[in-house]
Specification:
Elements (H helix, E strand, L loop, with lengths): L6 E6 L21 H13 L4 E4 L14 H6 L9 H9 L6 E7 L5 H14 L4 E6 L4 H4 L10 H19 L7 E4 L4 E3 L9 E2 L4 E2 L14 E4 L4 H10 L2 E4 L4 H17 L8 E6 L2 E2 L3 H13 L3 H12 L21 H14 L3 H9 L7 E2 L1 H13 L5 E5 L5 H16 L12 H4 L23
Parallel strand pairs: 1-2, 1-14, 2-3, 3-4, 4-9, 9-10, 10-11, 11-14, 12-13
Antiparallel strand pairs: 5-6, 7-8
Helix pairs in contact: 1-3, 4-6, 6-7, 7-8, 10-12, 13-14
The protein binds flavin mononucleotide.
Flavin mononucleotide (FMN) binds next to strand 3, helix 7, strand 10 and helix 11.
Length: 454
């Protein structure tokens, strides 16, 4: 049964985010304060959002001309990022239902640390943790972790597969009920119910057990955003939630169909994979006010700020191409999904690279600019035409972009019966309509046909 209502996640940035957004007069520059994130968390929970999501990267990108300038000067997406897990802990302390999702890379982290962090967050928040599994895509990140260049894409996904195999084993290493807390016996934890995992694989050797009991959700919710063929296969096997980005309703529908088919081919119920394209709506009391707001935001985007972000997303030095020419065909070591999106934009609108930089930095995914009613109309159209199971909301500026949406668009969605008015459950899995993961339930998801691991 498809979900009767859509799901909403908020893409919060623990830094300035969009290159024009931080310069908008209503933007509040509180990125280094816990209170700032706690206020956003309360806004999202009052509006009954499923979750707050934090993307992450592990470098200040220098892909544009080999310099940090374009990121730092323009306050572009990669200029500054706090560690999302710490930010989430502070948000978890002032909320009781909002899901809390952090991005952690399988390429540079270790499974024991990651399994422990997310199990801890899941306990501390009574089952609200989610992990956005990324494989990382920039050379600048590799250089912060003892390497001159990235691992090839194939290898990154091989490692990610084994990473999830190991974290699963670690979350299962305490059976449910292992923590007895019998003060008389005494029996704090039952040693018969806590098991080493003795994992020896291609990339990891981990004895276990974890030093944290089995998480309330079984496993935290797993989110993924891979867009290459490998990425989509990985997402269809492992993800509860898939985050994507599309330049049109049609490409969102194609992606939706493909992922649901891939999930079914892996023996999964397609309904158990929730696909959330990103949107960045600009809301106004009238269409004219919304349009003026958008134009003001767009004016504040420096073309080089947007191009710099696109350069790091693609991991291609775009400073080598003429600003008044078109984006040429390039090999993309970075995020293929973003490349498809900008190619579609360039071809449809005949953009030069300079224009593309501005458009990419100030893009309004889905094109939702208007009154709450107009935006709700657009979201309803996407939701009912099999383009998505909900949305990942980006704010054109923080925190006002979330407040506008929560206070104006959410009530309109609720009035139409498209969005919940109360949380259905306590845990994030319950609110997403997903069952708690049973021990060993995901073992068969590990890919067994790999050349590297054969
Ligand atoms: C919408 C979207 C958001 C993403 N967010 C992040 C992120 O926060 N951090 C990160 O390292 N990668 C992020 N990625 C990158 C992917 O997770 C993946 O690592 C990258 O796309 C390379 O894999 P691919 O070749 O399968 O696309 C994102 C990708 C997309 C499409």
């Amino acid at each position: 049964m498809p979900s009767p209502h859509l799901h909403l996640a908020a893409f919060v940035t623990a830094g300035p985010g969009r290159p024009g957004g931080w310069r908008y007069p209503d933007s509040v520059p509180g990125w280094l304060s816990a209170k700032y994130y706690q206020n956003i968390a309360r806004t999202l929970e009052d509006a009954r959002f499923d979750l707050a999501f934090f993307a992450d990267i592990l470098s200040v990108p220098d892909r544009f001309g080999g310099s940090l300038d374009s990121q730092l000067r323009n306050g572009a997406l990669g200029s500054m990022r706090l560690d999302p897990l710490h930010v989430l802990s502070s948000m978890g302390a002032v909320t009781s239902h909002l899901g809390l999702a952090a991005t952690v890379s399988t390429t540079y982290a270790q499974p024991f640390t990651v399994a422990r962090s997310f199990a801890s967050l899941d306990h501390l928040t009574d089952g609200r943790a989610a992990w956005n599994v990324v494989t990382s895509f920039q050379e600048a990140e590799a250089r912060n972790f003892n390497r001159d260049e990235q691992f090839p894409r194939e290898l990154r996904y091989e490692r990610a597969d084994e990473f999830l195999e190991v974290t699963g084993k670690l979350w299962d290493s305490w059976e449910d009920g292992a923590l007895v807390l019998d003060t008389e016996t005494p029996l704090f934890a039952d040693p018969d119910l806590v098991h080493p995992i003795d994992h020896k694989g291609e990339f990891f050797t981990v004895r276990g057990p974890l030093n944290v009991p089995r998480p309330p959700q079984g496993y935290p919710v797993v989110i993924q955003a891979g867009a290459s063929a490998k990425g989509k296969d990985f997402a269809a096997r492992w993800s509860d939630v898939i985050f994507c980005s599309h330049a049109s309703l049609e490409s969102a529908q194609d992606f939706y169909r493909e992922i649901k088919e891939r999930a079914a081919a892996h023996g999964r119920d397609p309904e158990s994979v929730k696909i959330l394209p990103s949107i960045a709506p600009v809301v106004g009391a009238t269409s004219e006010i919304a349009r003026q707001k958008y134009e003001k935001l767009f004016d504040l985007v420096p073309p080089l700020g947007g191009l710099s972000t696109l350069a790091y997303h693609l991991d291609v030095d775009l400073s080598t191409f003429p600003l008044d020419g078109r984006l040429p065909d390039v090999e993309v070591p970075g995020v293929e999904g973003h490349y498809h999106e900008v190619r579609e934009m360039t071809e449809r609108e005949g953009l030069t690279l300079r224009e593309l930089g501005k458009r990419y930095g100030g893009r309004v995914e889905g094109g939702f600019i208007g009154t709450p009613t107009e935006i709700a109309d657009g979201l309803e159209r996407w939701f009912t035409s099999e383009a998505c199971d909900g949305f990942m909301l980006q704010a054109p500026y923080q925190p006002g972009g979330f407040e506008d949406f929560a206070r104006q668009v959410v009530p309109e969605l609720q009035k139409r019966g498209l969005f919940r008015t109360e949380y259905a459950g306590k845990t994030l899995r319950e609110n997403l309509g997903l069952a708690r993961v049973q021990p060993g339930e995901w073992r068969h998801r590990v890919r067994r046909d790999s050349a590297v691991r054969a």
